[in-house]
Structures are given as C-alpha cells and as structure tokens.
C-alpha cells in the first residue's frame, strides 16, 4: 500500500501542484509574520537593553495619553544633583527628550520622516550606551548649534553648515548643523536632532531648569534593583517613577508592541484567508481525483485492501502534499520576511537581514499548519474513498457524489443557517454595542458555514438563472456549458465557495465602510460650523506660536481653540473611567452645532464645569448640577460640576468615551502646558472664504505640518482614513481571488481529464476547437459568477448588520456601494475567463482518437 500510495502521488503530481500552491501560500504568510515579528522584537530588545540606563527616574504619570495633548511631563533638572548624593550612584544625568518636533530646511521642506516615525529633539549626552556616535563635525556648543543623525541627513541632503528651523512646543528656533551622529544600533525610523545640554531645556521644554528624566548609572557592586530601592527611598516612591534597565527596556518594547501587532495581525489575516480558501481547493481536488480513480481503488479492494488501508493511503497522499507545500511555504515565508525587512528599511527602520530570527516555533508552526490544512481538507474525500466497493473495479462507477441525495446537506445547512440568521437578527435588534458585536461575529461565522454547506443545493436554481441566456446567445455550446456546471452540484459549489469567501468579505466591508463614510459626512455637515479647521497633518498638537500667527492673520473674525487631555473620572456608581477630555474657548456655538439635552455651551464651558454625553451620564447615575471628581495628568485633582448634557454621537468628535469637555480656562488650570490640537476659524465680515484661505495658507507657510481644511477637505480626510481599511480588505480579496482562480483552474483541468472520452466524442461529431474552448470558458464564467452572487449576497447581509452595530455608536447612515458590487460581478466573469484559458487550451489540443480510446 505504501508503494501504491507513493506511485499514485507521483503519477498525479501535476494535478496536485495547484493544491500545493494553496498550502504554500498559507504557510508562507504564517511563517513570514512569525519570522518578521520575532526579528524586529529581538532587534529592539537588544537596542533598548543596550541603551537603557541602570535606573531611570521619570515624572509620575498615572494616566495613559490615548490622544496627544502636546504636554511634556517634566521634573526638576536639579534633581540630578540630589540623585548623585544617593549611596550607590556612580553618575546621574538630566535628560531632555521631546518628540513630535517638526524640522524644516532652508527651503521650508520637512527634514523628518514621512512614514509616521517621530522627529525627536534631545540633549547631547553621549555615553558608552548611546545608540549614536559622533562621526563628523563637532558636538553642539551653546545656542544655535545642533547635530543631526546621518540617515536623516543623507535622506534629505543636509550637510554640516546648513541651517535648519526646529518647530518645538515652546516655539520655533534656528540651528546650524555642526556635526553628524551615526547610529551604532538599529534606527527605529526616527529623525534625531541633538542640542547642547545647556540650551536644550529652554529650547525644547520652555524651561531652562526642567528635564524629562534622570539617567542613573550604578556604582560597582550595586545591582539595578538595589539602586532603584535606594533612589525611591531618597526621593519618594510616590513622587517619581523608577525603572531598572530591564523594566525600562520592557516598557519601550511594549510601546512598540502596537506597531508590531498591527503587522502581525495583518499577516495572520492573509494567512487565515489563504488557509480557508485553500481548504476548499484541496477538498475539491481530492474529491475529483478519487472520483477518477474509482476503478483503481476498487481494484485495490478486490486485491485485499481493507477500508482503513484505502483511507490511510489517500490521507498519506494528502500529508505528502502538505509536507511538500509546508517545506516550500517555509522557504517562501523566509523570503517574505526578508522582503518585509527590506521594506522597513525603505521606510527608515533599518534592520539587518543577516540578524533574521528563525526560532524553533516557526518551522513547527509551518508544518502544523501545512499538514493540518491538507489532513482536514482530505479527510472527507478519504472516507468516501474507503467506501468504494471491490465491484467498482469491474464498472465505470465513480464516487464523486453525482446523483447522491443532498438531504443531509439540506438539513445541516438549514439548522446552521437558522442559527446564523437568529444571531444576525439578534445583532440588528440589540441595543448594547458589545452584545451586538458578539452576535455579529457569531452570525457571520454560522451564515458562512451554512452557505458553504448548502451551496450545492443552490447550484441548480441559481445557475439556471445565471446561464439562462447562454442557449440564446451561444446556441448548443451555451446549453452544454450550463449543463456541465449543473452536472455535479457538489463540485460546482465547492469551486465557487473559494471565491465566495473573499467576495463576502469585501462586500460586507464595502457596505460598512461606505456607511461609515456617509455617517461621518452627515455628522460633519451637522456639527461643523466653522469656515476652516486648522490641524496638524498627523493630528499632533502644534506650538502656541501657530495659534498666535493664525489669530493675527488678516480676515480672521473668530478663532476657537480645541485641546485634549487625558483624565480619569470617578462616577457616582463607583466606576473610575479613564478617557480623553477636550477643552474649548467660549463662542464654541459659533463654530460647532451641538445638541444639548440639558444646559448649553455657556454652562458647559463655565469655569469649574464640564459637559457630558447623556447616555454616559445615565449609565453612571450622573445628574446636571452634580459634581464629579476628575483626575488630571501630574496628579492634579478637581471637583467639577456637570453643567450640561449633550446628545452627541461618537462621530462628532467632541471627546471620546463619555463625551467630556470643558472650558479652556478649566483645562489650563488643572493641566497646564498642553498645546492646541485644532483651531476653528470663521471669516471676518467682508472677507470671502477664498481670501481667508489664501491668507491662512500664506501665514502657515513656515509650518508645513499644519494644514488648512474646509468642510470638503475635512470630509476627504475622513474618506482617506477609511480607505486605508478598504485597501487592506481589497488586498485580502486579491489573495482570495488568486487562490480561487487556482481552484477553478484545478477543477476545470481535472474535469477535462474526467471528460476526456466525452470531449473526444464531441470533437468526432463535429465540435470545433474554438467551440470547445468557448464551452469550457462559459462553464468557468458561470461558476465564478455563481460564487460572486453568493458572496455578495452574504456580504450585503453582513454589511447591513455591521451598520446596525455602527448605528449604536452614532453612525446611522446606511449606504450600499452599488458601483462596487456591479464591478465585482463583472470582475468575477473576467476571473472565470482567465481561469479557463489553460484548461480550455489543453482540451482543444487533445488527439480525437486517443481521447475516444481513453479510459
């Protein structure tokens, strides 16, 4: 049996190649993501571990800043002197590190990275642990001198002697580049500007006596943990944060973790699609191969092989396929990881490819995924093969399932479909976002399974409709192509299912994203009343001088500032909620349309008061006139009175959870040092919008990071952000289509082999080569369109239910992207034509006599 299995596998290796490609893609994405994330994690582990001080003293920060406030937490620079007096301290340095800077050259072009990495300003305090070393020029001395990292200098063509303008939180200043510093470790993609330690606090923090942290070196014989305890005892454990080198490195890695997780989840998403669609392909391939080998299997049974031996033989072939696909997939995954590392290099994150990490988990995962996919996919065909009777060797029977009743599928599909429909209905009527989202996920999974199970039941009614015009358009060729697609509903359903999965995903996400876009447009029209909004390109806050320049621009009639801060609110029901609150100037009503349930903007923005969303207030037993304790950054606390309740949707943007906002006077009292994140500007009487825009753009020309946006620009910004999600979905769709095309090609190729005698007879009675190719192409098109119709119908249902979940968050507009749907159906027909090219060509080149004699 082993010899027979190996010979059978080698005899059908061409037919199994496309299935092996599905396994290869699945394994490649899984291993590529593992290798890439392990390599990046190891690289940054080494970077942070090698550069962290023995102990770092930082300002106490109890609140996470989900939305940038522009505030830099500081501590007294003189604290370094107190630290030096602590027993066990060998050295202590006051550090100044500020991110979110903007640096421009003499032509007002940004010098920093454009990939989202920060531009950092820091004091030049070189030590043996520094990630950079001075490689040309000299260290900055006094005011107006700076170093620039070599990669930024090379990328932007900056040379020693050039003048740069640094736009920092306290304001802009010019520096002359006097030296270049080169990274000795991995550059995480940031641009670094180094200033003289004597001037950095004033330039970057606006306070010559401030620092962002103290780096402490331990004396010989003193461990990091011992030094940390001594420092905490001397300075006050509750006054500052104290971290050892290991703790600091771990904290830095955790901050980087979000970026790595995004890449990992995207890669796993691609792997999941490849695995799911690959399963359909492999099931179909083995089902058809077993159908074609009915007599061979019957002969093995007649020679004495029992059911278990036949089943093991088929599963052994599948495992050989999985072994080959996993091995090739592992190799391709290594190449994919290397490609991602090179891509990161182009984006400014330099990771050495020769430091690629391939841990033992990676190959184990590769073979578990590859062998698992093929084993699961081949199990049902293998069981069917074990049921072949020895008498089949004497007949032309096959076990492809043609003609077998579909009652079991009908019952199973109905049960699972009813459960899925119930979950989706529950999602639509639920009033809680969490429960609605859970029901949506359950409904999506169950409805997908039900459609796959019941797919063959839908083949005959749907394809009769889809192919109804074929006989009229193509005559007998059209009729035969339609009947070929109807001949084996199981095979047609399984082939179309691969395409259906991808199109259901893109259909659902397209409806959701189009609805989100329409909802945001609706909310922007409803709430934004300003002529222009001034914001940073990447939504980071900007220096006060930008506000001052805009305020002094000719034609500006009204300017309302918007600023954010992290807060924690202790509520009457005992909950402590950490969220982001906003602060606004008076006259907010003139630039925004806010719906108040109780109170008004005057009450909301009055000193010592705040506004809150009514649903949040109701859930936590808050009433107008009541007081709530609010914690601000730096440990400041206040008892604020609830002055107003609003009926605002999440899409309106006035805060996050709870919709908290108050007057800027209140914000500046309890959270000083923040920066404006948005300016809402109205034109003065007699100034046109066009004139004001031109004036504002002229004013902001020295600040390339700040943009002027009107209502249409603001909408386009939201559209572009949502489009990023769609691009990912379209990439997943592309992968699903690639594997689905492989499935259609495989099915048609095996079908041509299966129908060799039939094709020979058709050719013998006068069917031309061109007609034969057309027949196979039409069969492929109708299968592909059938998959598209099922997928889009399912996707529309998912999309509508997703909209119901979004509606609970205020995004109430429902929009169906009909253009996309029509384009996808037409594209599916094109996919069908492309997939049929090779099988049709092969069929048309058959020798007629040899085909008739084929068994």
Automatic annotation (TrEMBL):
Residues 106-125 are annotated as: Disordered. Residues 17-233, 492-698 form the MacB-like periplasmic core domain. It comes from the Bacteria. Residues 112-123 have a biased composition (Low complexity). It is a multi-pass membrane protein. Its main location: membrane. Keywords: Cell membrane, Membrane, Transmembrane, Transmembrane helix. It is found in: Cell membrane. Residues 270-390, 732-848 form the ABC3 transporter permease C-terminal domain. This is FtsX-like permease family protein.
């Amino acid at each position: 049996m082993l010899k027979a299995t190996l010979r059978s596998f080698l005899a059908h290796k061409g037919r199994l190649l496309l299935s092996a490609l599905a396994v290869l893609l699945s394994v490649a994405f899984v291993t590529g993501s593992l290798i890439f994330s392990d390599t990046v994690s190891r690289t940054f582990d080494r970077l942070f571990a090698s550069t962290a001080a023995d102990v770092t003293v930082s300002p106490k920060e109890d609140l996470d800043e989900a939305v940038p406030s522009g505030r830099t937490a500081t501590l007294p620079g003189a604290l370094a002197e107190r630290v030096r007096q602590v027993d066990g301290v060998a050295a202590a340095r006051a550090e100044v590190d500020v991110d979110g800077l903007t640096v421009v050259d003499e032509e007002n072009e940004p010098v920093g990275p454009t990939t989202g990495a920060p531009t950092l300003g820091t004091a030049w305090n070189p030590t043996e642990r520094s990630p950079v070393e001075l490689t040309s020029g000299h260290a900055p001395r006094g005011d107006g001198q700076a170093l620039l990292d070599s990669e930024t200098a090379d990328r932007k063509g900056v040379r020693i002697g050039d003048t740069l303008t640094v736009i920092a939180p306290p304001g802009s200043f010019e520096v002359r580049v006097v030296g270049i510093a080169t990274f000795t470790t991995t550059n995480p993609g940031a641009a670094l500007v180094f200033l003289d330690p004597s001037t950095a606090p004033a330039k970057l923090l606006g306070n010559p006596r401030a620092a962002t942290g103290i780096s402490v070196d331990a004396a010989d014989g003193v461990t990091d943990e011992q030094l940390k305890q001594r420092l905490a005892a001397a300075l006050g454990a509750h006054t500052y944060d104290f971290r050892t080198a290991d703790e600091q490195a771990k904290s830095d890695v955790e901050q980087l973790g979000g970026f790595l997780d995004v890449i990992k989840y995207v890669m796993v998403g691609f792997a999941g699609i490849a695995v799911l669609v690959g399963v359909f392909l492999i099931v179909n391939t083995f089902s058809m191969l077993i159908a074609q080998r009915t007599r061979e299997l019957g002969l093995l049974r007649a020679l004495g092989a029992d059911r278990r031996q036949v089943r093991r033989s088929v599963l052994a072939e599948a495992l050989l396929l999985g072994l080959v696909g996993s091995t090739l997939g592992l190799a391709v995954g290594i190449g994919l990881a290397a490609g991602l590392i090179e891509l990161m290099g182009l984006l400014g994150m330099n990771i050495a490819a020769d430091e690629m990490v391939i841990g033992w988990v990676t190959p184990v995962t590769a073979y578990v995924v590859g062998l698992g996919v093929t084993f699961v996919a081949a199990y049902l065909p293998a069981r069917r093969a074990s049921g072949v009777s020895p008498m089949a060797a004497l007949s032309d029977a096959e076990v492809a399932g043609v003609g077998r009743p579909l009652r079991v599928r009908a019952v199973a599909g109905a049960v699972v479909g009813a459960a899925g429909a119930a979950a989706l209905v529950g999602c639509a009527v639920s009033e809680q976002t969490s429960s609605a989202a859970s029901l949506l996920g359950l409904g999506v999974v169950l409805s997908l399974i039900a459609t796959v199970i019941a797919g063959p039941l839908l083949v005959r009614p749907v394809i009769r409709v889809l192919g109804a015009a074929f006989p009229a358009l193509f005559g007998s060729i059209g009729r035969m192509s339609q009947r070929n697609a109807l001949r084996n509903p199981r095979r047609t359903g399984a082939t179309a299912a691969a395409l259906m999965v991808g199109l259901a995903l893109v259909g659902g996400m397209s409806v959701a994203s189009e609805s989100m876009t329409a909802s945001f447009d609706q909310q922007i029209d409803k709430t934004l009343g300003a002529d222009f909004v001034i914001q940073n390109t990447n939504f980071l806050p900007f220096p006060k001088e930008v506000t001052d320049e805009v305020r002094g621009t000719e034609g500006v009639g009204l300017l309302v500032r918007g600023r954010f801060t992290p807060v924690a609110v202790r509520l009457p029901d005992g909950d402590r909620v950490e969220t982001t609150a906003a602060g606004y100037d008076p006259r907010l009503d003139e630039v925004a349309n806010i719906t108040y349930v109780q109170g008004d903007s005057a009450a909301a923005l009055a000193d010592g008061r705040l506004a809150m969303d009514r649903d949040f207030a109701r859930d936590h037993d808050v009433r107008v006139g009541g007081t709530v304790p609010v914690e601000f950054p730096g440990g400041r606390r206040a008892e604020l009175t609830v002055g107003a309740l609003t009926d605002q949707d999440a899409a309106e943007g006035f805060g996050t959870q709870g919709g908290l906002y108050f007057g800027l006077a209140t914000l500046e009292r309890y959270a000083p040092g923040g920066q404006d994140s948005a300016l809402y500007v109205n034109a003065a009487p007699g100034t046109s919008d066009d004139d004001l825009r031109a004036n504002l753009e002229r004013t902001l020309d020295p600040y390339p990071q700040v943009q002027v946006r009107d209502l249409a620009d603001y909408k386009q910004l939201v559209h572009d952000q949502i489009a990023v999600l769609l691009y990912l979905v379209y990439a997943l769709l592309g992968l699903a289509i690639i594997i689905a095309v492989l499935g259609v090609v495989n099915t048609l190729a095996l079908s041509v082999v299966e129908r060799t005698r039939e094709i020979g007879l058709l050719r013998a009675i006068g069917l031309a080569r061109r007609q034969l190719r057309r027949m196979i192409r039409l069969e492929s098109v109708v299968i592909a369109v059938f998959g598209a119709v099922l997928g889009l119908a399912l996707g529309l249902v998912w999309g509508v239910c997703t909209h119901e979940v979004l509606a609970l968050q205020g995004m109430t507009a429902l929009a169906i992207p009909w253009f996309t749907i029509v384009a996808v159906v037409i594209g599916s027909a094109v996919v069908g034509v492309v997939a049929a090219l090779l099988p049709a060509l092969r069929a048309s080149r058959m020798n007629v006599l040899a085909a008739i004699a084929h068994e």
